[in-house]
Amino acid sequence: MSEFKGKLFTFSAPSGAGKTTIVRHLLRQEKLNLGFSISATSRAPRGEEVDGVDYYFMTKEDFINKVKKDAFVEWEEVYHNNFYGTLKTEVERIWSQKKHVIFDIDVVGGLRIKKKFPQRTLAVFIKPPDINELIRRLKKRATESEEKVKMRVAKASVEMALAPQFDTIILNDDLQKALKETEQVVENFIKK
Length: 192
Hints:
Layout: E1 8-12, H1 19-27, E2 34-36, E3 39-41, E4 55-57, H2 60-68, E5 72-79, E6 82-87, H3 88-96, E7 100-104, H4 107-116, E8 121-127, H5 131-141, H6 146-162, E9 168-171, H7 175-191
Parallel strand pairs: 1-7, 1-8, 2-7, 3-4, 8-9
Antiparallel strand pairs: 3-6, 5-6
Helix pairs in contact: 5-6
């Protein structure tokens, strides 16, 4: 284990709420000293996603074998036969660089990390303005079928119900405002 034990920042939201945009912005803020935790997944790459950059893509069988070997900090079957998880080696990789870890992670995974590292984790929920805006954003992406969009929208209501369990809820109805707010929240938690 690395000697440096930095902070952990989990960013969770329904698909289309803007968490990835916010996480990418935070990673560009050098003063925050953040390293991105690349999640592992059993799903196929979408669009321009690159293995080892956006996700560690693996087969369902490989993912399950890593679960059996206790290789994950947390993992979840987010959608039927689509597993996502955080490899222990990812947290160690970032801490070995003496950086704080930032996660772009599903709601359940974010809460699991908070439970595992309660004092060092800030769990942030990015809330979309409303369900109609969420649908519009998902359709605008044009990376998924109509069926997948419907599945994500149905899941969004369950995820929104878990928002009060997070340390901070940031409404993303104005992106510039949301970026400033998240930057301030992260900076304040690092200083604690």
